[in-house]
Amino acid sequence: MSRAHYYVTTPIYYANAEPHIGHTYTTVLVDTLLRWHRARGAETWSVSGTDEHGEKMVEAAAKLGLPPAVFTERISALFQRTWAELGLSTSRFVRTTDPRHVANVQRALQHVYDQGWIEPREYEGLYCVGCERFMTERDLEGGLCRDHERAPEPRRETNYFFAMSREFGWLRQYIEEHPGFIRPERFRNEALAMLRDESGLGDLSISRPKSRLDWGVELPFDRDHVCYVWFDALLSYLTGAGWPDAPQFPARWANAEHLIGKDILKPHAIFWPIMLKALGLAPYQHLSVHGYWTLDERKVSKSLGNMVSPLAMQERYGFELFRYFLLREMSFGLDASFSEATLVERVNADLANNLGNLVSRTLNLIEKLCGGVIPEAGPAGAAEESVARDGEAAAASVEAAMAELRFHDALTSIIGYAGAVNRYIDGQAPWKAVKQPGGEAVVRTSLHFAAQHIRRIAELLAPFVPGLSTEILRRLGERGGRVVKGESLVPRLEAPAAD
Ligand code: MSP
Fold it and tell me: For position 258, what pLDDT does the model report?
């Protein structure tokens, strides 16, 4: 039987700002899912990258007096270095300025054009030169542009439109018939609501005249225009999977999952499936949508200048603990608020006091009472059977949680399991038993089972906190070999100074 495939993507990040907590969260989710599916025998593939065309890049580059190509090259390298430093690797990193990607965008545009999905239309409106764009009612006050306080001029320009609206009915039915297509459900409902209220949608303008913006992919059928940045960026999911020629492309595409934040639902839920249809490709399998990290209840983003840098978090706490916090604190699909104080509390409660303590005390007792070698067990009694059931229940709930991307629930179950093992040791009290006549069997059995459960816990934790998991397994040592006590597994963190 051929192996199952799993293909997962992060969004292609805009190359105009440094990596922050929002980018880091999605990238951590993708890394976790890859490890999860790999452990289940799937052949995995993943894509991340940088979105480098469009007006935003030109503006950001101009502020630094740099050509856009030089500017985006720098930021793209920064993203790549950051993920490498944090151990978050992807199979392919696509820059939308890669010649191979540019060729794919042109191939896709030509195909869609040849199939009659694209047509030029005259666009007429009020254009503000200061803003370099057409104004809407909302941009004007007393007939003047709000930002530039000057009258916009009437202009006509040709725009190429992708005839997206003809497929709204099809898409609506597809979403209705495939409940897991867009998840969690609130976002599926949101996409359906967008399709119901077609006034907000219409056809998609996919071109910008070069006279206005020349930093983009040229339309192959009209060299005076460049491609709209979203049309270009979404195609990176195909470029990264080896479209059109890679022999592995069909298997990857048939098992594709996109992870995104909720602000980019519309292009992924509406534009993208219709673009795929126009290209003769099936829709992706899943669009999985997460909420925002907020700081003081505001969205963390570069424009607010209050971003949380993953490298700073790594330096302060170690990336593993930050990663644990991201996965444990956010309910997938909902917003969560970030603060260092909550991170410290969460890590101390779950990892230092519960899991870390379990590992240290067990290894210390094995060292002290059993010469540092995990003992053989006597027969399991009621207490052993009960904690074994806790372990099985935890493994089953991790499985169920991961099928629905409830990362936080998966971790809650694993930490709950560590709590059950702690209580088991408390109940058996091997440090007391050793002093009692005949207590030897209790010592051996309880420490044997405790070590076995710790191994199981480490295995369950592997996709979420791979470094911590490996470290626990290392300390348990080879089967039959000596355990390694080591320093405290997760030292208690100090509460951050209030500012
Ligand atoms: N370039 C587009 C994506 C194109 S995909 C074909 C883009 N880039 S982005 O850099 O602005 O955002 C990338 C991702 O980061 C998005 O999924 C967005 O939701 C996520 N986040 C940005 N700020 C965030 C938070 N504060 N919290 C969680 N994620 C958020 O959009």
Answer: 98
What tens digit of pLDDT does each residue of 114-139 get? 999 999 999 888 888 777 677 878 78
> Residues 45, 6: contact at Cβ < 8 Å?
yes
Phi, psi for residue 149 in degrees, rounded to 5: 50, 40
C-alpha 292 – ligand 1 centre gap (Å) = 9
CB atoms within 10 A of CB 169: 10
User: 83 is written with which tokens?
Assistant: 């993920």
Query: What are the pLDDT digits (tens) for 464-488?
Result: 999 999 999 999 998 778 999 888 8
What is the distance between the alpha carbons of residues 446 and 448, in angstroms, rounded to a whole number?
5
pLDDT category, 89, cuts 50, 70, 90? confident
Q: Is 86 helix (H, G, I), strand (E, B) or coil?
A: coil
> How many angstroms does the Cα of residue 16 sit away from the middle of ligand 1?
12
pLDDT score of 172: 97
Place of tokens 């790999």: 38
Angstrom distance (rounded) from CA 467 to CA 323? 10
Quick: pLDDT tens for 373-392: 999 998 999 999 999 999 99
Cβ atoms within 10 Å of 492's Cβ, excluding its own: 15
Residues flanking ligand 1, CB < 6 Å:
11-14, 22-23, 25-26, 51, 233-234, 260-261, 263-264, 292-293, 299-301
Distance of CA 253 to the CA centre of its chain: 18
Stated pTM of the model: 0.93
Strands 298-299 and 293-295: antiparallel
Tell me the one-letter amino acid at 120.
P
d(CA 231, CA 245): 20
The residue written with tokens 């303590």 in the block is: 357
The domains found in the chain, sorted by start residue, are: 5-307 (3.40.50.620), 340-476 (1.10.730.10)
Paired with 6 in beta bridges are 44
- 3-state class of 373 per DSSP? strand
State the chain's mean pLDDT as an integer: 93
13-68 pLDDT per residue, tens:
999 989 999 999 999 999 999 999 999 999 999 999 999 998 889 989 999 999 99
CA distance 32 to 461: 10
